[in-house]
Structures are given as structure tokens and as C-alpha cells.
Amino acid sequence: MKKAPTGILPILSVDRRSPLPLYRQIYEGYREAIVDRRLRAGERLPSTRSLATELGISRIPILGAFEQLLAEGYFESRVGAGTFVAHSLPDEAPLPDARSTSRSTAGRPGRRVLSEASAVLGDGITPEPWHGGWGAFRVSQPAVDHFPFQVWSALLARHSRNPTRSLLTYGDPMGHRPFREALAAYLRTSRAVRCEAEQIMVVSGSQQALELSARVLLDSRSPVWVEEPGYAGAKDVLTLAGARMVPVPVDDEGLDVSAGIERCPNARAVYVTPSHQYPLGGTLSASRRLQLLDWAQRSGAWILEDDYDSEYRYESLPVSALQGLDRDSRVIYIGTFSKVLFPALRIGYMVLPADLVPRFVRVRDAMDIFPPTLFQAALTDFLTEGHFARHLRKMRQLYRERRTTLVESLSKELGDTVRVLGAQAGMHLVAELPKRLRDRPLSERAAKEGIWAMPLSACYLEEASRQGLVLGYGGTEAARIPEAVRRLRKAFRTG
């Protein structure tokens, strides 16, 4: 039997001026020596008494460090023999990465295999220049400073002070039942959605609704129609799902269903924003709604209806949901409170065909079990006590004023240089540019002026057939809009 060597004193130092306790310095020093393989499996450690003498400190912090290392499995103790580096630890050090001199584990990576889908999206999130800050014309920015936070805080406090057991334990994968009942009543009366509480699944926003739908409805390489131009977030979800996206052009009547059938008659699904097309702002016409539903029934396709901000219309009453016309249960209706309340709330919902509920529940349970309950409870009261309806009326008036100011300012400052699209609804509009102007360089110059105008071309999968600026006005005060448009005009002149 190989004889264990005498206790080894590794290069170990302590700093009495460090805010880190002595026992922690000793613990981390030994752990790093073992991880770096400067101490190997089976090597004997010095006694705590000799180590205390060597370091010139009390035995107490050393005993604490050794006890922790024993508990975590780095050390092992043998009666009558002493303390050793655990035999169960690997003995060979990983080969260092020749491209890095870092002492961190990131400098010595092993083989790292990642999914092809994630590689398509790339690493991290690098904000485009037009997403560089909060301010004038940032898309999807609501007027959060006008939200009734005093009311909301009182509702949260009501449920937080003496919470029921149902708010603290594991919940229903579909969501908080009272909230779903209140939401079903709202959707039936205001959006003409055909639903019961049993069909509503609460999610963390429209992105999760799309992800769940992709997991349940699609296979790798399933063809899916997407609006062209359209919502980039939906395209990211479909990319991760491995779907094959089929861009279908959009015109003044919304999605061109005939073009979609010509391009891919057997698509598995279609992602559509019929009430307020994103980003051009049009409404899917009645004839095309019926044509889309008829195609879905004949082909067995699914319709993902994203109704992201339909509560805000300024020239007419809100347009009824496409789902309300569906007689074959082909539509998955998706909504969110991010635009009508505030984005950080992270509460959205989906109305599912009744026969799909069990499958969605099983997938949801595998993903994150159930949605957080406290905000749902507060939002239930917000709906049933009339606060939501009052807030919507107030915000419609506010956004109408901001929309009108923006349209007038664009006409005054830029005249015939731009053509306004989609100003009848929502929280943004499009300033279409003449073909001679490129929107991306213009957006980059505008960002230098503190104007966050998204280029329309960023919403295309294929080569953009239109150039324009997507201007959000929800989060910009009416009094600030004229000056912001003047700064935008400066970007036009410097191009």
C-alpha cells in the first residue's frame, strides 16, 4: 500500500485587513488549491495545530474551514491517521486552454455543445441604436407615470397582509381561478371572444404564450406563415422552435391570405395580428378574416392571434377578435397587460380551444409548473372593482392627444417627406419614407439626437419593400413631441 506523504503546507496566506473572515480565506485557499489540482486526491493535510503555527493565527478559524471542507467533500478524515484530500476527487487536471491565460474556469473550458437553434439567435442581447434609451418615440413604451399606483399598491397590500393558503402554495397551471373568471367576463364583453374561464391560461406575457404554442403545435421544420413586415419577437420564438417561417406580405387589408396560400398552402400555423397589424397598423378586413378561417379549417392549420394593444382605437370602437368568428376551434387567442398597464407586470393570457387544454397544461407544468399568484389576485380586484375600465378610458384620451400631436408635428416639420400609416389605433405609427431614403442610417442618426425611432426594415424577414420609421408615442408627453420631431428632422438633414 502506498504510504501517504507527510502533511503538506500549500501556498496559503491570510490577510487580517481583509473584510473576508479568516476561516473563509483558509477555506477558499484550500478549495482553490484542490480545484486547480495543486493538491491531489489522497494527499495528507497538515494538522490544524501546525497550520496555526505556520500562519500565526488561532486554531479556531482553521477548525471552521476544515469542518466546511469536510462537509463539502473536499477533505476526508481517517481516525488515527489525519485529514486528507478526498480520494473521490478526480486526480487529473483539465488541460488549459492555450488561447487564455486567465486563472478562472472560463479559461479552461471543456467541450461545450449548444443547440443549433440558440446559435441562430446569437449571443447576448446587443441593443440596436434605436433601443439605446427611454424617451421620445421608443416603441412599446406606455405612459407608466399615469398608472394608478396608489390603487394598485392598496390592492397588493390587501392580499399580502393576510394571504390565503391558495396564494402561497402550488397553484393551477392554468392560473388563478378568480382571475381567469374575471378575465373571461372582460374578454366576452369587450373583445367578443368566445371563452370560459376553463379555456384561459395565464402566462408571463405574449412571448411565453407563443413559446407554449410552438411547443404544443409545431415540429421541427413545420412551415408557419408570418406577417411581412411583422413582430420580431414572434420570429425569434419560431426560430427557437425550429419552424420554417414563410413570410406573407401585408397590405392595407392586413395579411394577404391568397399570397400565403400560394406560397405555402399546407402551413402548420399562422401568426397574425388582425386587430392592429404590427408594425403597419392596419386591420385585417372582414373578407380576409373569413378567408383565413376557411383556409385554416380546410388545411388543419392553427391561427395564433396576437391581440397585443387592441384596446386603443381612436376613430372607432375596438375591433372584435378574430377568435369570435372561429367555429372550428382553430384559433389560439393571445393577449397581454404589458401595454395597457405596465410591462414589468409580466401577465399575459391565452384562450385555448377546449380540446387542447389538457396538452397545454401538461407542457406548461413541465416548463414552470404554474404562474405567480399574488399579482393575479390583485389584478382580479383591479378588473372587478372597475379600476381597469377607468384606467383604459383615461389612457385612450391621453394616447389620442399624443397621437394627434405627433401626426400634426410630422406634417408641420417633414411635410410630404413622410406618409403616416396606422395612426388609427395603438401606441405607435409608421412614418413611411420615400424609396430614396434608407431608414436604418436615419434611425442611427436620430439616436444620436436622443430620438429612438425604430427602422421599419428591421421588421422584415426578407428584403424590405418599404422604408420607414416606427414611432411610439405612448411614453412621450404631448408637450415634448413637437421638439422631438424637430430633432428628428435634424437627422433627416444630416443624412
List keywords for this structure.
495 residues; alpha/beta; Arc Repressor Mutant, subunit A; Aspartate Aminotransferase, domain 1; Aspartate Aminotransferase, domain 2; 3 domains; eight-stranded mixed sheet; 14 strands
Describe the structure.
Helices cover 38% and strands 13% of the residues. Mean pLDDT is 90; it is low at 97-107. It has 495 residues and is α/β, with parallel strands linked by helices. Strand 4 (223-228), helix 9 (232-240) and strand 5 form a beta-alpha-beta unit. It folds into three domains: 1-94, Winged helix-like DNA-binding domain superfamily/Winged helix DNA-binding domain (Arc Repressor Mutant, subunit A, Orthogonal Bundle); 129-136 and 390-493, Aspartate Aminotransferase, domain 1 (Alpha-Beta Complex); 161-388, Aspartate Aminotransferase, domain 2 (3-Layer(aba) Sandwich), CATH 3.40.640. It has 16 helices and 14 strands. The strands form three sheets. The protein has an eight-stranded mixed beta sheet, with helices on both faces.
Brief synopsis:
The chain is of the alpha/beta class and 495 residues long. It is 38% helix and 13% strand.
User: Could you tell me the strand content as a percent range?
Assistant: 5-15%
Q: What's the overall geometry?
A: globular
Under CATH, the topology of the largest domain can be stated as: Aspartate Aminotransferase, domain 2
CATH superfamily of the largest domain: Type I PLP-dependent aspartate aminotransferase-like (Major domain)
Quick one: biggest sheet? 8 strands, mixed
Count of domains: 3
Structural class: alpha/beta
What string gives the helices and strands in order? Answer: HHHEEHHHHEHEHEEHEHEEEHHHEEHEEH
Side by side, the strands of the main sheet go 3-10-9-8-7-4-5-6
Mean pLDDT score, rounded?
Answer: 90
Please give the CATH architecture of the largest domain.
3-Layer(aba) Sandwich
